[in-house]
Amino acid sequence: MNIPLKQYWELLVKYLKPLKRRAALMAGLLLASIALQIVNPQIIRYFIDTATEGGSGRSLTIAAVLFLAMALVQQVTAVSASYFSEDVAWKATNHLRRDLAMYCLDLDMTFHNTMTPGELIERIETDVTALANFFSQFTVRILGNLILIAGTLVVLFAEDWRVGVAFSLFAGLTLFILAKMRSIAVPYWRTAHEASAEVFGFLEERLAGTEDIRTSGAEPYVQHRFGAHLDNRVRRWQRAWWVNFSVIFVLREMRAFNLLLALAVGYWLFDSNLISLGTAYVIVYYTDILFRPLEQITQQLQDLQRAGGSIIRIQELYQRTSKVIDGDSASVPTGSLQVQFDHVTFAYNGEDRVLSDVDFTLQPGKVLGLLGRTGAGKSTIARLIFRLYDVTEGAIRLGGTDIRDDNQVHIRQRVGMVTQDVQLFRGTVRDNITFFDSTISDETIMRVIDTLGLHAWIEGLPNGLDTELEHSGKGLSAGEGQLLAFTRVFLRDPGLVIMDEASSRLDPVTETLIERAVDRLLENRTGIIIAHRLATVERADEIMIMEDGRIAEHGERVVLEHDPDSRFAQLLKVGLEEVLA
Ligand SMILES: Nc1ncnc2c1ncn2[C@@H]1O[C@H](COP(=O)(O)OP(=O)(O)OP(=O)(O)O)[C@@H](O)[C@H]1O
Ligand SMILES: [Mg+2]
Question: Minimal CA–CA distance to 138: which of 58, 27, 278, 54?
Answer without folding.
Answer: 27
